[in-house]
């Protein structure tokens, strides 16, 4: 019998002073059985950083052709493709061809720099692709915020993010690679 996804609830209070986005949002998030807490928190962070009313999570790990989150228009065209991790060149191309804008958040210990050296020339081919590197120390600390029911505050100013709950706070400074 296949394992089922774990259903999580998250209430987000987002104050993005860089983009002038201020909102409260309640979400239901499915955590795939193979998705660890760090990956889920990075997926949630990417959602927060790109938040708009039309943004939604996808089936993610269950479907190879979908990103972590996306924004589609009324004609089902992909306006924004948000991915996380260290995708191969083929996936970068697929995203860049399918979507008007692609944002990738890389994370991982001792792997991002190697991945970037290998994929930088391919990534530079796509004008609609933006790549950010998330520091491993911050993404690993974000697991302290993980719970089946999360109440998170996200404050974004001058490219820095403070993500917190009642007990813990994490400062994240993404590095823009492209």
Automatic annotation (TrEMBL):
SMART domains per UniProt: YaeQ
One Pfam family named in its UniProt record: YaeQ
InterPro entries registered for this protein in UniProt: Restrct_endonuc-II-like, YaeQ, YaeQ_sf
Xref: PANTHER family: SUCROSE PHOSPHORYLASE (PTHR38784:SF1)
Protein name per its UniProtKB record: YaeQ family protein
Native organism: Pseudoalteromonas luteoviolacea NCIMB 1942
């Amino acid at each position: 019998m296949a394992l089922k996804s774990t259903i999580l609830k998250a209430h987000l209070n987002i104050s993005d002073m860089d983009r002038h986005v201020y909102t409260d949002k309640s979400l239901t998030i499915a955590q795939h059985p193979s998705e660890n807490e760090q990956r889920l928190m990075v997926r949630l962070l990417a959602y927060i950083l790109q938040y708009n009313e039309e943004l939604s999570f996808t089936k993610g790990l269950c479907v190879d052709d979908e990103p972590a989150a996306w924004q589609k228009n009324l004609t089902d065209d992909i306006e924004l493709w948000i991915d996380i991790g260290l995708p191969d060149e083929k996936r970068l191309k697929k995203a860049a061809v399918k979507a008007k804008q692609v944002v990738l958040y890389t994370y991982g210990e001792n792997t991002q720099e190697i991945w970037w050296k290998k994929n930088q020339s391919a990534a530079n081919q796509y004008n609609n692709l933006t790549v950010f590197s998330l520091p491993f120390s911050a993404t690993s600390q974000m697991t302290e915020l993980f719970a089946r029911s999360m109440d998170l505050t996200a404050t974004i100013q001058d490219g820095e993010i403070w993500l917190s709950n009642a007990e813990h706070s994490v400062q994240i400074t993404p590095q823009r690679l492209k």
